[in-house]
What we know:
Blueprint: H1 2-15, E1 24-28, H2 33-44, E2 48-54, H3 61-77, E3 80-84, H4 88-95, H5 99-118, E4 122-124, H6 129-142, H7 146-149, E5 155-156, E6 159-160, H8 168-178, H9 194-209, H10 213-242, E7 243-245, E8 248-250, H11 251-255, H12 259-274, H13 279-291, E9 293-297, E10 301-306, E11 309-314, H14 315-319, E12 323-325, E13 332-334, E14 337-345, H15 346-352, H16 356-359, E15 364-366, E16 375-377, E17 384-385, E18 394-395, H17 396-403, E19 414-417, E20 420-424, E21 428-429, E22 441-447
Parallel strand pairs: 1-2, 1-4, 2-3, 4-6
Antiparallel strand pairs: 5-6, 7-8, 8-11, 9-10, 10-11, 12-16, 13-14, 14-22, 15-22, 16-19, 17-18, 19-20, 20-21
Helix pairs in contact: 2-8, 4-5, 6-9, 10-12, 12-13
Amino acid sequence: MCDNMLEKVRQTINAYEMLRAGEKVLVGLSGGADSVTLALCLKRLGFAVCCVHVDHGLRGEESDRDREFCKEFCEKHGFELLVFSPNVKEYCEENKLSTELGARKLRYDAFEKAADKFSCEKIATAHTLSDCLETTLLNLTRGAGVKGLSGIPPVRGRFIRPLIDCTRAEIEGFLALQGEAYVNDSTNFVDDCSRNIIRLNVLPQLERINSGIMKSYFSTVKVLRETSGYIWNLTEKAINSARISNNSYKTDVLLSCDEFILENALSQMIKDACGESSFDRIADVVNICKNGGKITLPHDIYAENSKGILKFYKQADAAQDLQSPLVIGENMHFFDKDLLAEKYAVEEYLKENDNVHKKFTNYQIDYDKIKGSVFVRNRRSGDKIKLRGRDFTSSVKTLFNASVPVEERGKVLFLCDSEGIIFIEGFGCADRVKCTDSTKNILEIKLNTKLSQ
């Protein structure tokens, strides 16, 4: 059993190219049978193992017991260990998440931090073939495509699952032969959540029908993963062909795809935008791709097809008001971008620039033409500007409709003085404050992110 188990784990690691020989790897250690087995197998296979334990503090003395067990286990086997104790209840209340979702996010955040601390490229979690089958059944009850029916992927980014081809029975047998202790999470034995209902009630009945269900599932899930991989390659190609920006896509390119690939592409876009997809939401987005319109998705996300462009955006971003005094010479931060306005005398500027007048740009303002104080804000209804070099006034709405993605419009920076707009990020300065041959002082606007020039 011991050698068979190690060989199965070794084959899984090689098949999915999870680790290089002797590589340092972080193990998410709960103290349960699966994670204890994972750490021991990786050590026996010659990998440098370090561990992270996340104490969610949700099970009182049992949580304390698990934490102390992990410390003793790591000391016994010579594993470095980091322990995190986040306040799960407070985090879930602040972010309006269920305890399960909030704890999972905090756990994976801790894994990432520990991996960086230990300089590990890969993070190994102890998901098994049994977990994978539970996930497949859970996804089946909710409605799923081929990807959902494939259960838990062996590799996702830097996360690897070396036990993904091993059953829970094999793991418990391995530990028995090793004479190795582990702890049990009592909440796993109460059928008060969907996964536990499947584990405790559904799987035993399926095993009555077919005692070799795990062997059958192992063969089936391999086919599902291969099929899912093939479909994903076609889907990714479709998404990349249609992509305009991170959250906007050409609808004519999407609609030229096979219906099945279109639906898979939209499913991925919806997940990227709001984290959740479903058959109904996919159908709704297909409809607006074909007929135009706008729909609401979870978490205040909108999907809109306008003028042949499908866009996903958060309404709250566009509605957030900004108004702040401009401090000349000081780096200011708004909407994940840096703004720096610096004043120069033309004579000073000439020392570093040949033929300054040819170098005047949309990002340079005649400082002496500014009226009153300057402040930074984002767009407002009815905004208009006569841009440098133009003999007509344009509405900001018209300017934005032509070139600014919907989800970015509320984040575009404006500079205003007492008479109105003097500068718009991506479009430049107003004609009334442009630099000319008679300019004596320049206010130069520097942005680390520009929409367009």
